[in-house]
Amino acid sequence: MTYRKAKEKIYKWIFTILAFASLFFLVGIVIVLFKEGTPIFKEVGFLKFILGRHWYPTSNPPDFGIMPLMLGSLWVTLGASMVCVPLGVGSALYLNEIAGFKQRQLLKPVIELLASIPSVVYGFFGLTVVTPFIQKLFGLPTGMTALNASLILGIMATPTVCSISEDALSYVPRSFREASFAVGANRWQTLTQVVIPAAGSGISTGIILGMSRAIGETMTVLMIAGGAAVIPHTFLEPVRPMTAAIAAEMGEAPMGGSHYHALFAIALILFLITFVFNIIAEIISRKFRIKLGLSG
Amino acid sequence: MKKIAILMGAALIGLSSIVTPCFAEKIVMAGSTTVLPIAQKTAEVFMDENPSMDISVRGGGSSVGITALIDGTCDIADSSRPIKEVEIEKAAANGRDPVAHIVALDGIAVVVNKSNPVSKLSKKQVKEIFIGKISDWSQLGGNPGKIVVVSRDTSSGTFEAFGELVMNKEKVVPSALMQASNQAVSQIVSQTPQAIGYVGLGFMSGDLKSIEIDGVMPSKETVLSGKYSVTRPLFMYSNGKPQGATKEYLDFVKSKKGQELVETQGYVGLK
């Protein structure tokens, strides 16, 4: 008996350690980001770093202005949400409200499969198919633009938006729909005035998580966004999102130099942005659960 | 219990296989993607000739290699640029002493799309294109159309060399497409009719058209004779004066045979 008890205790400890490992890693990453990123603020000044319009990290003297990089990230994220919101929410509505059992069985795994395609494959597809297409379509000098990156990122974020929205829709209690039908509402009225508002916060969570997927995506934007550190004025210009700048430059930045610290500072800011996104998503989804009386 | 015993046994076997190669002479190399083809080819042939040697080669970038050398996690750092002052200081603080070995020469070819009628430019024109002063091909006698400037990332060794040799350290126009590798530059230039870019001579291919600069076409001959001016040396750094296996390998790279291998990779040998 004691042997069994000991065994149980060991298992308990193993799983406790595993569960806390993520916390440990998160704290470690945050510490490193702050330690390696903050020195640049002393050198350049936080506001100048954030609002600077030129990114010439290796010139002499260097310019560390990440405004073009932040706007690059923002543009492709906004563009991506214009693609993934209609696609993701629309397919969730179809799956949950209209599709028959067989269609659901086929469509759901297919949409989720989109999420498992490696980002470098998306990038390659974008580079060889979408880029030349956009170049020809708009008669541009180059097809490597924010539009191009937005389209691909939007497709990549669609499964996230779709599956979370679909979950949210399926949590709407049957009684809500029945009550709506009982007072004489038709299917469309029930959908737009009862079901979507009830699932609204769940859908918003999905959208926000989809956007944080898009803003953090690296390989794809590195390959297809063009990489020009300019402040974008239209979607048909090349951009250089923050992730692409870090990925492209980290390998060549002398360790411990200003450029190295500046890249860590970009990573820190990116981390804070996605952190805020996730907190907002968490708050909204908690409200949603309370609203439907699912949990406290 | 039996399962645990089996697992322990497996772990022991695993460990021993990690430990064994240490008895062979081992060299770890890391660094510049430009030097990578040279490092790979020479390491391959060197290991064939000396079966007791075990060389592992990694890319990552010039700074990755030099950082690894400073940290003591590699024996040889490949670099497409000379080591910087701040890196030498770091190395000294860590008790390391990087020593440079020039292993090859590389010309940087200015390339355009094959459909582009422009085939000659002066160094000054190239500079003005890259700083954004000239922005339309019609200014250069080509078909009218906006010039798409493609450059390497500001931190790459190739960018640095190009900046020093052509740009006089002036800034590349912000709208330039900054790309992370020689391959990415060739991909874009071969796909974009209005593009201009630059790649190491080793990455020249049939999909690109190289431009005559000040009347000189980049080639092995013109690089070696010094006629083609956009030329730079490529380095391998060892810690202190090379010894043992590292010395043997570096001597091999610098030997006639090693330099022939350098040439097969599209670079220019020293002899």
Describe, in plain words, how this protein is organized in 3D.
The complex is a heterodimer of chains A (296) and B (271). Helices cover 77% and strands 1% of the residues of chain A. Chain A has helices at 2-37, 39-44, 46-51, 67-98, 101-115, 119-138, 146-171, 174-182, 187-216, 219-224, 242-249, 258-291; strands at residues 55-56, 63-64. The longest helix of chain A has 36 residues, at 2-37. Chain A has one domain (38-291): MetI-like fold (Orthogonal Bundle). By secondary structure, chain A is mainly α. The two termini of chain A are 39 Å apart. Chain B is of the alpha/beta class. Chain B contains ten helices and eleven strands. Chain B folds into two domains: 24-105 and 234-264, D-Maltodextrin-Binding Protein, domain 2 (3-Layer(aba) Sandwich), CATH 3.40.190.10; 106-231, 3-Layer(aba) Sandwich (D-Maltodextrin-Binding Protein, domain 2), CATH 3.40.190. In chain B, strand 1 (25-31), helix 2 (36-49) and strand 2 form a beta-alpha-beta unit. Mean pLDDT of chain B is 86; it is low at 16-22. The interface between A and B is large, with 37 and 39 residues.
Count of domain modules of chain B: 2
Number of helices of chain A: 12
Distance between the termini of chain B: 65 Å
Q: Which two chains have the most extensive interface, and how many residues on each?
A: A-B, 37 and 39 residues
Unreliable residue runs of chain A: none
Proportion in helices of chain A: over 70%
Task: Please tell me the total number of domains of chain A.
Answer: 1
- Class by SSE composition of chain B: alpha/beta
> Can you identify the CATH superfamily of the largest domain in chain B?
Periplasmic binding protein-like II
Architecture of chain A, CATH level 2?
Answer: Orthogonal Bundle
Work out the number of β strands of chain A: 2
Q: Major sheet of chain A: order of its strands? A: 1-2
E-strand count of chain B: 11
Report the major sheet of chain B: 9 strands, mixed
